[in-house]
Amino acid sequence: MNLIFLGANGAGKGTQAKLLQEREGIPQISTGDILRAAMTDVRSPVGEEARKYVDRGELVPDDVMIAIIKTRLAEPDAARGFVLDGFPRTIPQARALDEWLSSRGRSLDAAVYFEARRETIIRRLTGRRVCRAAGHIYHMEYHPPRVEGRCDVDGSELYQRDDDSEETVRHRLEVYDRQTQPLVEYYRAQGILETIDAEADIEQMYQRLMQILTARTG
């Protein structure tokens, strides 16, 4: 199946994409992962172009990002299906993806929207703490340290990264709402939007995902 996962950071779409890859063999194509891979590949002209923007702290333009995605989707493991996690982020990106798939006789089977309340997302994203010595990761709600503020492994201080602060998280969610939320309506209009309650636990979400895929494959 050719799938897109939509939802804010912290909604759980990355976790579900990994599970789908592990259990069903559908490759997870994460925008962040393939962008980093392209930028470190000296043979990739689009990767080199992307690095120029990233090094300046700017967003990678649509045409560059689309070129990177097309290259990845043309690889053999994506021939039988894929899960796009983190792409598209805008309507122009979505249209470009539709056109490229159509030119190869393919189409999207479903766009799965992981829906969660704003406060749930903020709680998930701001709860992360990192060990200063070795980078061990904790979460104040889901994986707390045995001693508050100290790493279980080496006893070093735990801290909150700047991009996990509530102010930063709220800003990222505002950007998401402006740029990416319109995709929900875009795919709803195409009749391929499916919704998962991202307030549920991991296995409940996965079972709902499997129900969607079963119904879509008929």
Provide the fold topology:
Elements: E1 2-6, H1 13-24, E2 28-30, H2 31-40, H3 45-55, H4 62-73, E3 82-85, H5 91-103, E4 110-115, H6 118-126, E5 128-131, E6 137-139, E7 158-159, H7 166-179, H8 182-190, E8 193-197, H9 202-217
Parallel strand pairs: 1-3, 1-4, 2-3, 4-8
Antiparallel strand pairs: 5-6, 5-7
Helix pairs in contact: 1-9, 2-3, 2-4, 3-4, 4-5, 6-7
Structure explained in plain terms:
By secondary structure, the protein is of the alpha/beta class. 49% of the residues lie in helices and 15% in strands. It has 9 helices and 8 strands. The protein has helices at 13-24, 31-40, 45-55, 62-73, 91-103, 118-126, 166-179, 182-190, 202-217, and strands spanning 2-6, 28-30, 82-85, 110-115, 128-131, 137-139, 158-159, 193-197. It has a 5-stranded parallel sheet with strand order 2-3-1-4-8. A hairpin with a 5-residue loop joins strand 5 (128-131) and strand 6. The radius of gyration is 18 Å and the shape is globular. The model has no long low-confidence stretch (mean pLDDT 91).
Largest sheet: 5 strands, parallel
What number is the mean pLDDT?
Answer: 91
H/E element order = EHEHHHEHEHEEEHHEH
Q: Strand fraction band?
A: 5-15%
Q: What class do helices, strands and sheet pairing give?
A: alpha/beta
Number of strands: 8
- How many helices? The count is 9
Question: Which strand order does the major sheet show?
Answer: 2-3-1-4-8
Report the C-alpha radius of gyration, rounded: 18 Å
Helix content: 40-55%
What sort of overall outline do the alpha carbons produce when their principal axes are compared? Answer: globular
Are there runs of 5+ residues with pLDDT below 50, and where? none
| Amino- and carboxy-terminal Cα gap | 12 Å
